[in-house]
Amino acid sequence: MSTLRLTVLVLIVLLLVLASSTNSAGTDALTSEQGITATRTVRLRSMSPPGQWKCLLPLLLRSHPPSPTATPTATIEPPTPTPTLEATPISPCPQVGHWTGTESQAGYDVSFDVTSNCAVHRFAFRFPFVGTSCYMRSSEDLHIENGRFRQEWEFWDYVSSFSGEFHSSTHSSGSYSVYYCDRTLQFQPSEGTWEANWSGPAGH
Q1: Would you say residue 84 lies in a domain?
Q2: What is residue 48's three-state secondary structure?
Q3: Do residues 176 and 152 touch, judged by C-beta distance below 8 A?
Q4: Residue 28: inside a domain, yes or no?
Q5: In 64-185, which ranges are continuous DSSP H helix?
């Protein structure tokens, strides 16, 4: 409460007390010429009815309203965007050039070239098959996708395949499963694995 409002309230209280005291009855003495003293009661009217002061109180308080209290406002921060993670290939395109290695069953040679457009060219390998061996070579360039390549072929619902994976720019490995080779079909596939490494530029 401010000093001005406190002063106004004190004045109002004093005026109310004064008005209440003036409502009480007063007496004065009158003496006649014959020496007879008579007492006359005089009722004094208050200067203003107390109700008027009560009506003035809200007006005075309204003329000096209390200072508004500041309402705290919350600061809303925008959400932090979550970064989007993009998938990366398992392996980049391997070293361009000639690759050589061996298969696991009999140690036969494996060879192929990697071209500049990230493809395996002339994948060729020999492997044990029906008591002897068989030689195979890819019929087309095989695109390397996420560091892997694969080729399949089918004969009488028997699916043969070979595949490979590049573990680094100069090392690769894979597997094969062959039912049909050189016009011969066997009911149990010839299966094995292979490994190869980069050996230099293509044609050497």
Answers
A1: no
A2: coil
A3: no
A4: no
A5: none
Q: Which of 132, 128, 124 is nearest to 104 (CA)?
A: 128
Query: What is the identity of the amino acid at 199?
Result: S
pLDDT per residue as tens digits for the range 53-104:
444 444 444 544 555 555 555 555 655 655 444 434 445 799 999 999 999 9
DSSP code of residue 92? -
Phi and psi dihedrals of 181, rounded to 5? -155, 135
Number of H helices, E strands in the chain: 2, 11
Tokens 């993009």 correspond to: 86
Instruction: Residue 138: give its domain's CATH number.
Output: 2.40.128
Backbone CA torsion sign across 101, 102, 103, 108: positive
Q: How far is CA 33 from CA 30, 36, 42, in A?
A: 10, 7, 21
Where do runs of H (alpha helix) occur along the chain?
A: 3-22, 50-63
Whole-prediction pTM: 0.55
C-beta separation of 111 from 204 below 8 A: no
Answer whether 65's CB lies under 8 Å from 168's CB: no
Could you tell me the residue range of the domain that residue 4 belongs to? 1-23+47-65
- Interatomic CA distance for residues 117 and 200, integer angstroms: 17
Strands 119-129 and 184-200: unpaired
